[in-house]
Design goal:
Layout (H helix, E strand, L loop, with lengths): L1 E19 L2 E14 L5 E6 L10 H10 L3 E3 H5 L6 H13 L12 E5 L4 H11 L4 E5 L5 H14 L5 E5 L6 H12 L5 E5 L7 H10 L4 E3 L6 H9 L5 E4 L1 H4 L2 H10 L3 E4 L6 H14 L6 E4 L1 H4 L1
The site of magnesium ion (MG) has 6 residues, from loops.
């Protein structure tokens, strides 16, 4: 099967910069991929790398697109190297888009991302009114004493029916992670999970933490690509895995892996446009456990 291939770079500025332990992020750059089959049917995909999270750079993805001919084959798509995971996702999802997608994503519960710091205290309510019941709050951004105090206020403000996720983006020390986990255990509100408390290189310490506390721990940065996901699973991770379809790599290989093992997954956005979002949500509709809200409630940053 041959496809006509074209692409164009796309940039969008966040209305509010995304602040995480990795720094301040203001502009989302991506590449929109277009495939057309022999019947003239179109399929679109999005390459939305986050190199500081473990994917290729935008420049590497652009180089890859530039060196391709204008006619490509299935073999081209399925032989994209593992060093270009966002390209694997963009091209495979464009190809899958040609057939129309059978999965409905309308039933998925969504998690909303709160701004870091004390701004979260003013922001959860409008999101609650929009129907969100799961919130994620970034920690490890300010001094721990300050954040623990905001956390204390936040959990006392949030209504009973809410689930709170804490995301440290790998920015805590082992001691601070223990302090946070102790606070979570003694918290009157159910903390759904703590995400990536320590850096990627501190896997064994996170494994130890996950065995010492009742609060669930999710790996995110540690499993940004399929190879890392397979490796952490092989090393005995029993907790949650955050899947960012946009950068994890090949969707077909992700499906195979998820069908082979019973994994507790949380699907999450990489701030993609509606093209990548649609493809990522299709995958979530197919593979996400129904009780785990998907991390695609990010409208706050675009509007
Ligand atoms: Mg995260």
């Amino acid at each position: 099967m041959g496809y006509k291939f074209s692409f164009r770079p796309h940039s969008q500025r966040f209305t509010r910069p995304v602040i995480t332990n990795h720094g301040v992020w203001e502009i989302r750059d991506c590449i929109i991929v277009h495939l057309m089959d022999e019947q003239g049917t179109s399929g679109w995909g999005e390459i939305a790398p986050i190199s500081w999270f473990g994917s290729e750079t935008l420049a590497a993805a652009l180089d890859f697109c530039h060196q391709l001919p204008t006619e490509i084959t299935e073999e081209t798509i399925f032989s994209i190297p593992d060093s270009l995971p966002a390209c694997q996702f963009g091209f495979e999802s464009a190809r899958e888009g040609l057939g129309g997608n059978p999965y409905q994503c309308t039933h998925l519960p969504y998690s909303a991302l709160l701004p870091a710091g004390a701004a979260a205290l003013n922001q959860w309510q409008p999101l609650w009114e929009q129907g969100y019941r799961t919130f994620k709050w970034k920690i490890g951004v300010q001094a721990i004493a300050q954040e623990l105090e905001i956390f204390h206020h936040l959990i006392h403000q949030l209504p009973d029916a809410t689930q709170l996720r804490l995301d440290a983006n790998g920015g805590l020390s082992y001691e601070d992670a223990r302090l946070w986990l102790e606070r979570c255990e003694n918290c009157p509100r159910n903390i759904e999970f703590m995400e990536q408390p320590l850096g990627v290189e501190e896997f064994s310490q996170m494994l130890a933490l996950s065995q010492s506390y009742n609060v669930a721990i999710a790996l995110d940065e540690s499993v940004s690509t399929l190879k890392q996901l397979e490796s952490c699973h092989r090393q005995g991770w029993q907790g949650i895995f955050v899947i960012k379809p946009g950068i994890i790599g090949s969707p077909s290989r992700l499906r195979e892996f998820c069908h082979a093992y019973q994994l507790d997954l949380v699907f999450s956005s990489v701030f993609e446009t509606s093209v990548g979002r649609q493809a990522a949500l299709q995958l979530a509709a197919e593979l996400s456990p129904p009780h785990r809200a998907v991390g695609f409630g990010i409208n706050y940053f675009w509007m």
